[in-house]
Amino acid sequence: MAALQEKRSSEERRHKSIQNGAQTSQGQWGRAWEVDWFSLASILFLLMFAPLIVYYFIMSCDQYQCSLITPLVDLLMGNTHLSDIWNKTPTLTYKAAGIYILWVTFQVILYVFIPDFCHKFLPGYVGGIQEGAVTPAGVVNKYEINGLQAWIITHVLWFANACYFHCFSPTIIFDNWIPLLWCANILGYVVSTFAMLKGYFFPTNAKDCKFTGNFFYDYMMGIEFNPRIGKWFDFKLFFNGRPGIVAWTLINLSYAAKQQELYGQVTNSMILVNVLQGIYVLDFFWNEAWYLKTIDICHDHFGWYLGWGDCVWLPYLYTLQGLYLVYHPVQLGTANAVGILILGLVGYYIFRVTNHQKDLFRRTNGNCKIWGRKPEYIECSYTSVDGTKYYSKLMTSGFWGWARHFNYTGDLMGSLAYCLTCGFAHILPYFYIVYMAILLTHRCIRDEHRCFSKYGKDWKRYTTKVPYRLIPGMF
Ligand code: NDP
């Protein structure tokens, strides 16, 4: 069995690495081979508590008007018991299961059976068959990029139903939100467990599997790098984009419809959330080919972190602002609304331009213009597992000369704008900015660790030239 052989050689590699006293070496620049106690503790914490955190947030809106403190106080004071809260929680229903199965099946059909046609008539859009980055084993995967078309078809059908056909209410998602949570959890666990077994018994590419020897770490962070079924069903591309990100805008639309139903109007804060997050989602699908070069695809293996995260964490916690606004319809003053819109748009501009600069630079191998000038860069090299040497470049011009992750800074500004739409009465909507700040700072450190493992002294030269991570002059 190729995967089991790879497991054995993984272990040998790990022993050699420890004997040499080297944590990482060139040719081993994918995800970690060893698990330190801090990573293990974090993983165990997340495996145990992440599903409870999601439940707690959604339950607190359902039962406590989105107050995160009141349920805790009630529990501590003995005013309520866990069993009372649990008994009031909606259970899994056949209706929710039916909706969820239809939803996921529809997205699978759009992904697998409808080749991209958008790139044939949308100027500047890169869709159809595209190549990913070189994996640690030296493989270059091909992907069918058709997310934009899946998003458009899904939303056209949604609006057609809301305006003409009326087969179901546009509030359907909100109305079944907790029963759907159980369905999303089932899918998240099934997919992650399947991915783990697949990594052991029938991996897509055995050389791109990693076994740390720690069951929990492997389950959480994944074994296979790019698990696939058949030639085209790529787990990472499918689960991250759809059902997770296609659902994001539909969920927000369902919240807006609920506001309309409950209060007879949609507030400007709800419109801002729909517009700003809608831009972010559309940007993701417009640039899906670029996404093939991001850390999720180029570095992360597919385990619970991505599988469960895409099914549950993303659709439930990234949409908290809209959910909150159903319970607390905030009508912002004009100055506040305009200020938030500007913050969101400037954040988006920085996020997009920074990502675009890197993409353009890498696609043209540096033969392009950044802010009207030839880009400056540092030449670097790395080797894959089989010992092949590759050459690359790290740009030091444009926003990439200001900070090493200015794209994250723009993302954080946008995230703050979403939260500010909700005013300051509750902390629940601010979970997103806190979470994004932790996620992106951790991601920044994780990425730099990986880049150092990959590029060695060349990465040091780069960090000397661009000393700041997120905020020039500060961090
Ligand atoms: P980046 O797009 O910043 O990619 C990092 C990689 O780019 C590095 O590993 C390295 O890869 C390469 N690189 C680093 N520095 C340079 C340079 N100076 N010149 C050229 N290439 C360089 O990170 P992510 O993939 O994490 O993020 C992509 C976007 O997605 C970000 O804008 C982020 O904000 C967003 N994001 C959003 C999340 C959300 O939940 N909303 C979650 C995660 C990300 P190589 O090995 O090729 O050299």
From TrEMBL:
InterPro entries, per the entry? ERG24_DHCR-like (IPR001171), Sterol_reductase_CS (IPR018083)
Molecular function terms from GO: 7-dehydrocholesterol reductase activity
Give compartment(s).
Endoplasmic reticulum membrane
Give the bilayer topology.
Multi-pass membrane protein
Pathway given for this chain reads: Steroid biosynthesis; cholesterol biosynthesis
TM regions (residue ranges): 37-58, 92-114, 148-165, 177-197, 237-255, 262-282, 302-320, 332-351, 415-440
Q: Which UniProt keywords apply?
A: Cholesterol biosynthesis, Cholesterol metabolism, Endoplasmic reticulum, Lipid biosynthesis, Lipid metabolism, Membrane, NADP, Oxidoreductase, Steroid biosynthesis, Steroid metabolism, Sterol biosynthesis, Sterol metabolism, Transmembrane, Transmembrane helix
Enzyme nomenclature, EC number: 1.3.1.21
PROSITE patterns from the xrefs? STEROL_REDUCT_1, STEROL_REDUCT_2
Q: State a GO cellular component annotated for this protein.
A: endoplasmic reticulum membrane
Q: Which reaction does it catalyse?
A: 7-dehydrodesmosterol + NADPH + H(+) = desmosterol + NADP(+); cholesterol + NADP(+) = 7-dehydrocholesterol + NADPH + H(+)
Record region (Disordered): 1-23
Any one Gene Ontology BP term: cholesterol biosynthetic process
Source domain of life: Eukaryota
Bias (Basic and acidic residues) ranges: 1-14
Q: What class of enzyme is it?
A: oxidoreductase
Q: What is its main location?
A: endoplasmic reticulum
Q: What PANTHER family does the record tag this protein with?
A: 7-DEHYDROCHOLESTEROL REDUCTASE, DELTA(14)-STEROL REDUCTASE
| Stated family | Belongs to the ERG4/ERG24 family.
Function text: Catalyzes the last step of the cholesterol synthesis pathway, which transforms cholesta-5,7-dien-3beta-ol (7-dehydrocholesterol,7-DHC) into cholesterol by reducing the C7-C8 double bond of its sterol core. Can also metabolize cholesta-5,7,24-trien-3beta-ol (7-dehydrodemosterol, 7-DHD) to desmosterol, which is then metabolized by the Delta(24)-sterol reductase (DHCR24) to cholesterol.
**This protein's name:** 7-dehydrocholesterol reductase
